[in-house]
Each structure stands twice: as structure tokens, then as C-alpha cells.
């Protein structure tokens, strides 16, 4: 079993897609280890996405992530990191495969419904960032 970290981003929470996304997560066989709805401040979003600090979209991205409530989750399954990335689909919804969450629910490249850790090290860091009690 492997753990990964996911976010239902402000666009999808606002559009009331959270229930559908959570249902899909369960249908795909993930165990939801932890989950909470939070509204983070801009500085916390900046810390979370610090890896993108030099990118031109950093300000827009962190403003967006702090613009409304999000649902943060720890998901568990065999090969969970890759499995969750596959279920999410490509970063740009225009390039996402049919039936992926981003194809179904994302608005745009920036407002793309969900986040997922990209590797074991980042999964560990991101879980600890929102769920220190689990690490
Ligand atoms: N993003 C953006 N413009 C870009 C690339 C990314 O606004 O050109 C946003 C988008 O919300 C994405 C996030 O920045 O989900 C993090 O980018 P990353 O490349 O890590 O994509 P992800 O891992 O989320 O698929
Ligand atoms: Mg990423």
C-alpha cells in the first residue's frame, strides 16, 4: 500500500463537484485515510507551491488556491501516487484523457479541479504539510 496527497481545488469545490470527485475516488479503490475542508491563506498557498516560485504562473496559482475552500485528502492504494495522477488526467484539461477528473471537471489550465503529489518524496512532504499528525 502506498499513500498520496490530493486536493479538490477551489474551482471544483465552488462548482459542487466535490461529491462526484469523492465518489469516483472510492469507486477507483482508494482508501480515504484523512480528509478535511480548509480555506488557506495566500502565504500558506505560496509555501505549498514553493517549488513553482520562479514560474510565471506562481502568483496566479497561489491566489487561486487561497481563493476559497479546498478539500485536502490522504489517499491510499497500491501504487496510489501514479493511480491518482492517472485518475486526475493531464494538467491541461484540453489534453486530459476522457473520463479523467480534469477532463470532466476542470475549467482551464490554471483552474484544473484537483492536485496530486508527483513522487514519493513530495507525497510525504505534502501529507505532512496538511496532516502533521499522520507523519
Ligand atoms: N499551472 C498553471 N499554468 C501552467 C502550468 C501549471 O496555471 O502553465 C497551475 C495548474 O493549476 C497546475 C499547477 O499550476 O495544476 C501546478 O503545476 P504542475 O506543473 O505541478 O501541474 P500538476 O502537477 O498539478 O499537474
Ligand atoms: Mg505538480
Report on this structure.
With 135 residues, the chain is of the alpha+beta class. The protein has a single domain (2-134), classed as Alpha-Beta Plaits (2-Layer Sandwich), CATH 3.30.70. Helix content is 41%, strand content 19%. The chain contains seven helices and four strands, in the order E-H-H-E-H-H-E-H-H-E-H. Strands 2-3-1-4 form a four-stranded antiparallel beta sheet. Helix 3 crosses helix 4 (58-65). The longest helix is centred in the C-terminal third of the chain and has 11 residues, at 120-130. The protein is globular. The two termini are 16 Å apart. The mean pLDDT is 98. The site of uridine-5'-diphosphate has 9 residues, from loops. Uridine-5'-diphosphate binds at residues 52, 57, 61, 91, 109-110, 112, 115, 118.
Compose a concise summary of this entry.
This protein is of the alpha+beta class.
Percent range of helical residues = 40-55%
Strand order of the largest sheet: 2-3-1-4
The coarse overall form would be globular
CATH topology: Alpha-Beta Plaits
Structural Rg:
14 Å
Q: Would you report the number of β strands?
A: 4
Largest sheet: 4 strands, antiparallel
The figure for the number of domains is: 1
List the ligand species: uridine-5'-diphosphate, magnesium ion
Strand content: 15-25%
Distance between the termini: 16 Å
CATH homology superfamily name: Nucleoside diphosphate kinase-like domain
The succession of helices and strands, N to C, reads EHHEHHEHHEH
Q: Helical element count? A: 7
Mean pLDDT: 98
